[in-house]
Design a protein that fits this description.
Blueprint (H helix, E strand, L loop, with lengths): L2 H23 L3 H9 L7 H22 L2
Helix pairs in contact: 1-2, 2-3
Amino acid sequence: MNLLNLKNTLQTSLVIRLTFLFLLNNNNYLAAICAYRSLYINGSETAAYNRGLIRSIRDEYCTKQSTV
């Protein structure tokens, strides 16, 4: 990967992370999960972290839905 591609990838990643945090802060859990899924890097530590994070958000969403 050349430096320009790396820069573009990091910028895209930052935009997705900021979108994720905005959606999460507004209790839009399903949209946040969809935004964060696009950050998966297969077979890496990051992918494992993202899967765990998405599971915890999904669990939080399901808990809130069951109490409404």
